[in-house]
Amino acid sequence: MTCLGLGIGMLRWEKTPARYVAGAEWVDHDEAVEWVTKWNKKGLVQNLMNFGMRNGGPYIGGLCNCSRPDCASIENRLRYGQKQLIKGERVAIHNKENCTGCMNCVKRCQFGAIAADIRQNKVQIDAQMCFGCGLCESVCNDDAIELKNRRDFPILRYDW
Questions:
Q1: Into how many domains does the chain fold?
Q2: Residue 74's domain spans which residues?
Q3: 131 & 112 share domain
Q4: In the chain, where do the E strands start and end?
Q5: 135 — alpha (psi -120 to 50), left (phi > 0) or beta?
Q6: Same domain, 19 and 71
Q7: What is the CA angle 12-15-19, rounded to 5?
Q8: pTM of whole model > 0.85?
Q9: Residues 92 and 59 both lie in one domain
């Protein structure tokens, strides 16, 4: 299990035929937090799934946790430019002075936004390629990566 159903759509699961449920089960808040923490440690990208409604706006239907190449949303965005997955509100900003060159963040980035700068034994982050998932920040022990609001940067403001 790597996805959590959320919101009003989950109320329909009780009426869904068993053959479609595929082992889905209800979890409480604490269990959900445990799962999300576990998936983050594994390096899975966490993203919200939005669904439309007939008589209203979109609603959040799930929290998906996936990785390349298994995640169709990530693959379709990076390979074909289809915006099934849009960038997050935040973007990773790098502080080179704090960076020790451990390269842990390079291994975690599934969007190709972080590259090793071998000459300086540091990393470089391409903010335009960053989706703001925060996987890099969560493994940076040197406080060299900080997630900042994408809208604070004119070049990124409309880059979703």
A1: 2
A2: 1-86
A3: yes
A4: 3-5, 45-53, 56-66, 90-94, 114-117, 122-125, 145-149
A5: alpha
A6: yes
A7: 110
A8: no
A9: no
